[in-house]
Specification:
alpha/beta, five-stranded parallel beta sheet, 16 strands, globular
Length: 311
């Protein structure tokens, strides 16, 4: 009926609709997680008001087991659970506690990264840093009073309990309930769009982009930045009665800092083929130049370019 109903009951009618509500963080999908955030060694950068607590937890850490988790995807910024782990490792070395620390990465994914070329690089980083890895492990429960995390293997359903002194937990994520309950959703709950044109598969006056869409690529800011011009071009074409001509190739980027001053810039498309923006710099190696790009260049691009619609 071409209308949107708000939470307070207002009805908004539309001729054309662009859907981009983001992704939903499902904290309660892990028993004991939401009530433990910010205390007993539990932290997460995925809660806006907890980021400073993550730094406090890392800074005050004096040794033991530091556990970092990653749920089965999709999640927003799938590299973030690793980023904080590598930076924590770097700080532990600076503060002199790394030799008293075991770092464990427990992830619901089958490998450390979906693009094999970047996975090889990040595996080498983990080997160098002495990081223990457990893949296909989904966090299902925290027992903060005992500082234990319970995992289930995503294939065998075998359970494993890992004791920790600190844990950075990444919550499971999924489509917003409002999308999942709507007629716009596919079977998995995402806004069902053509992956090239970003136009809805069943409703021609609806478009979608970003984390809530069914686009089979990583949920990153770089992906949205590549999607937006395609959607605008195709929406304008549709307004003129023309067929959509813009095409999105699945480009996404994930800049992963591995040390203070070093970064791997992972860029890829739908086919998980590397698509480096700067081919003269080896994107499969940790680069200082990419670190400075991440620290100074990308924030400027975001605040002064992307948010103003000029980059």
């Amino acid at each position: 009926s071409d209308r949107v109903v708000t939470a307070r009951g207002d009805e908004l009618r539309y001729d054309w609709l662009v859907v981009c509500p983001g992704i939903q963080l499902n904290w309660d999908a892990v028993a004991g997680l939401s009530k433990s955030l910010g205390r007993d060694g539990v932290c997460s950068n995925y809660a806006y008001d907890q980021c400073e607590k993550t730094w406090d937890t890392i800074r005050e850490f004096r040794g033991g087991t530091a556990l970092f988790t990653m749920p089965p995807p999709p999640i927003k910024c799938a590299g973030a659970p690793q980023k904080i782990m590598y930076l924590a490792d770097a700080h532990f070395r600076r503060s002199g506690v790394r030799d008293k620390t075991k770092i464990i990465y427990a992830a619901g994914t089958p490998t450390i990264f979906s693009v094999k070329e970047y996975a090889a690089t990040l595996d080498r980083v983990c080997e160098r840093k002495g990081i223990e890895r457990h893949f296909k492990h989904k966090l299902v429960e925290l027992r903060p009073e005992r500082r234990e995390a319970r995992f289930v293997h995503t294939e065998t359903q075998e359970e494993k309990v890992i004791a920790y002194d600190m844990i950075h937990a990444t919550p499971p994520q999924g489509p917003p309930d409002v999308v999942k309950r709507s007629t716009l959703a596919d079977a998995a709950g995402w806004v069902e769009v053509n992956k090239a044109t970003l136009r809805h598969a069943r409703f021609p006056n609806v478009f979608s982009l970003g984390d809530a869409s069914s686009l089979p690529t990583s949920r990153t800011g770089a992906a949205v930045r590549a999607q937006a011009p395609v959607l605008v071009a195709n929406l304008l074409a549709a307004l003129d009665g023309r067929a959509p001509h813009g095409s999105y190739d699945g480009y996404a980027a994930c800049p992963i800092p591995t040390e203070y001053g070093k970064l791997v810039l992972c860029e890829f498309d739908y086919d998980l083929k590397p698509t480096p923006t700067f081919p003269l710099l080896d994107s499969f190696k940790e680069q200082r130049a990419y670190y400075w790009l991440k620290r100074y260049g990308l924030p400027a691009l975001y605040w002064h370019g992307m948010l103003k619609g000029i980059a």
